[in-house]
Amino acid sequence: MITVAKTGNEAMAEAMRQINPDVVAAYPITPATEIVMIFAKYVADGLVDTEYIPVESEHSAMSACVGAASAGARVMTGTSSQGLALMYEILPIASALRLPIIMCEVNRAISGPINIHCDHSDTMAARDFGWIQIFSENTQEAYDNLLQAVRIAEDKRVMLPIMVTTDGFIISHGMEKLEMIEDPIVKEYIGEKKPEYSLLDIEKPTTVGALDLTDYYFEHKMPVIEAMKNAKDVILEVGKDFEKKFGRQYGFYEKYKLDDAEFAVVVLGSASGTAKVAIDQLRASGVKAGMLKIRVFRPFPAEEIAKELTGKKAIAVMDRSDSFNTCGGPVFTEIRSALFDSQNKPSITNFVYGLGGRDINVEQIKNIFESIRNVGKVPVVNYIGVRQ
Amino acid sequence: MATLKELSVRKDPLTGGHRACAGCGFPQIVRMVCLASKDPIVVVSATGCLEVTTTIFPYSAWTVPFLHNAFENAAATLSGVEAAYKAFLKKGKIAKKINFIAFGGDGGTYDIGLQSLSGAMERGHNLLYVCYNNQAYMNTSIQRSGATPKGANTTTEPAGKVKQGKVQRQKDLTEIMVAHNIPYAAQATVGYWADLVRKAEKAFSIDGPRFINVLQPCRLGWVYKPEETMSISRLAADTCFWPLYEVENGKYKVTLKPKEKKPIIEFLKSQDRFRHLFNPKNETILVEIQKEIDYNWEKLLAKEAK
């Protein structure tokens, strides 16, 4: 291990350098992500063998990724916010074609209004496109998650594209201590990509992206659904192996003082660090507070999460985006649905916070706990940190 | 140039039994372009008639590697394939020379795919982009495109009591490609097959981004009898409605100079999409169209003479 100080973007770019993908295609939409700029310098300095395609839009970035991955290449890209939105059309094509493209996604608010700061609206809007989605709390997790992403996506049981996300500015531009694994060890850890099919196989020509009408489309969506189920096993296996090799533990989620907690928050991404401080303070004053930090949002570990939360007195689900459905954010609806069959259901409320980079602090999270301790007295959906 | 006999023994990229309309022009375009390559090929197609009629699962008419991604991104998609090829060449994982070809209709090329095409050309990928240009969105019911000529009847700009089909001129995409300073850009049409094969052969002999804009009459959208595709195609060139030329490293060469330039009405009257123009009250439109064709033809000849 090498201990360095890196921002989230630098950590992801370093992981990309170590992964040394065959092809990277990316575009700097506003808001542009720095990850690709750092990586482009690695290309310019000959530190990687990558064919780097500086495309003219994120739409073309994802399109080129699909082309390169169909040719059997290990392919990566990086984007954020509007860029991810511009890729939406091609994201489900990548998963349907079972192309294990790896994306560094910096969570930032979707326009409008144009904003560029952190929330999860960009990534959440991409949740139903057949991509595995992994959230990171900090720079270390962003780095570790990206290395594991290669193994998860390219596993024969999975073969799905994957996005590893960090929170815009909070992680992407925040400098933290990072334990990096040595280059040759990463190379050995991720191994060579061995594609089963390649568009460049002239001897065995394949037709990729055929027209499926009413008689086959459904059958071709089912394997994606099955692959997502398989991804659950693979994510846990890869996490265990990573822990054995490098000492850091990864599963579907992290439990923070959850087991004996009576009241818990469910959080994704950087806010979980703040929540830990709030929980420590509450514990010191005798409140049995805890947290479930979701790492893997797609596939959604519903049964596992339900087991962890059953029996709690009250749960607050924190959403950093809204669904505009008038009944809760995307994480909330998943969690509530996951708990539907539980015998001993906790009371569940939703707290939408931090849209467009609005800060969330320890006091606010303590207030969330205070609210849910008055079980049944708060509305189902609450918006915090916003002026009325 | 390869003779017909030589072309006939090369591997046909498309099998029979695909579902293009009787009299459709693009299967011939695909065959002529692909057969002109002596090296193996990989094909990417935009969403459109070509993709829809040749790849209805579980069937495929393609005997060569084929990838379809979406409507507007054939050029970007092929950029990725070509980049992967370069990465594998560098790593010694592949050694064979492969020619990379993208096919897109005029909708996927002139309109929604223009940015993707421009980007791929600017970045200098080693690929050939072929537009099979039938001057409207034929796959989805003959909607107007940027390639639709003035006066043509389409479903989204139909001829009616007060409007006479498309008001605007077509976009000059070939010149837009020339302005990218690519090593090779050309215009061809399916009816002059030898001219098209020669241009494709030339394109394959050149490294870098190349573009051929091939006019393809569409019996469905242009409204004529299926057996007339080739004759109407030749009429487009003989009237200078669709001049055949190439631009190699900035040097223009007109590859077909009709001995006697036929009047545009001969082309227009061959198809029902222009039928309304022959109403006497629309005579001025016919005059305008002829004027524009004459002007563009002289401009092209002047470029060649430079």
From TrEMBL, chain A:
Keyword set includes Oxidoreductase: yes
MF annotations from Gene Ontology: oxidoreductase activity, acting on the aldehyde or oxo group of donors
Pyruvate flavodoxin/ferredoxin oxidoreductase pyrimidine binding domain boundaries: 14-238
Signal peptide region: none
This protein's UniProt keywords: Oxidoreductase
Domain of life of the organism encoding this protein: Bacteria
Domain Pyruvate:ferredoxin oxidoreductase core: 261-365
Keyword Oxidoreductase carried by entry: yes
Biological process annotations from GO: carboxylic acid metabolic process; response to oxidative stress
Family from the record: Belongs to the pyruvate:ferredoxin/flavodoxin oxidoreductase family.
Protein name per UniProt: 2-oxoacid:ferredoxin oxidoreductase alpha subunit
Organism: Candidatus Saganbacteria bacterium
UniProtKB/TrEMBL annotation, chain B:
Keyword Cytoplasm appears in the UniProt entry: no
Signal sequence, start to end: none
Annotated ranges, domain Thiamine pyrophosphate enzyme TPP-binding: 47-214
Cross-referenced SUPFAM superfamilies: Thiamin diphosphate-binding fold (THDP-binding)
GO-annotated molecular function: oxidoreductase activity; thiamine pyrophosphate binding
InterPro entries in UniProt: PorB-like, THDP-binding, TPP_enzyme_TPP-bd
Region (Disordered): 144-166
Membrane-spanning intervals of the chain: none
Keyword Oxidoreductase included in the entry's annotation: yes
Record's keyword terms, sorted: Oxidoreductase, Pyruvate
Compositional bias of kind Polar residues: 144-157
Residue ranges of coiled coil: none
Protein name: Pyruvate ferredoxin oxidoreductase beta subunit
